[in-house]
Amino acid sequence: MTEQKNKLLIVCSKGTLDMAFPPLMMATTAASMDWEVHLYFTFWGMDMITKKKSLKLSPVGNPSLPMPNILGMLPGMTAMATKMIKSKMKKINMPTIEEMIKMAKDMGVKFHACTPTMQLSGITKEDLIPEVDDLIGAATFIELSRDATTTLFI
Question: Which CATH superfamily is domain 7-52+72-153 in?
Fold first, then answer.
């Protein structure tokens, strides 16, 4: 009897720079541990897999940033916070989102785009990066999760 491979499913629902890294890091880590990994991109998470992605770090409501929270509402603060975090990431040789996506694909991670979200937001298949494996709805995601070891919502 062969032992079944562990399976990780992650729902990616956020489209900010700081929320794009956790699912990609967990996906690549699980894949390196020989897990089967699926990423399901829905709502704002679709921003991670569109060709025109421009993920930003929002300072509003982010108490971890080294500035008073009220300053996040000022014009230009999102661009400043994004530039600041990208600079710090570069200094520590942290991979970019694009590099993480390539790494995940090279490790066998499956990328699934949510069809209802695509219809709602007017995203077409041509708008998506080539790494996307397929377009699925909730029913297919539920079937994928049936035998999952772990399912996460980010």
Answer: DsrEFH-like (3.40.1260.10)
Domain ranges within the chain, ordered by starting residue? 7-52+72-153
How confident is the prediction for the chain on average, in pLDDT?
88
Q: What angle do CA 31, 8, 115 make, to 5 degrees?
A: 110
In DSSP terms, which residues pair with 112 in a beta bridge?
40, 134
The larger pLDDT score, comparing residue 63 to residue 7, is at: 7
> Tens digit of pLDDT for each residue in 13-40?
999 888 999 999 999 999 999 999 999 9
Question: CA 126 → CA 21, 26, 36, 49, 66, distances in Å?
Answer: 24, 27, 26, 11, 39
Query: What is the Cα–Cα distance from 59 to 72, expressed in whole angstroms?
Result: 5
Q: Which whole-number Å values give the CA distances from 121 to 110, 116, 137, in the listed order?
A: 22, 9, 14
DSSP state letter for 125: G
Q: Which residue has the tokens 């956020």?
A: 14
* pTM of the predicted protein model: 0.86
The structure tokens listed for 67 are 């500035």
pLDDT tens, position by position, 51-100: 987 888 766 555 565 555 555 555 666 677 767 777 888 898 989 999 99
Q: Strand pairing partners for 37?
A: 8
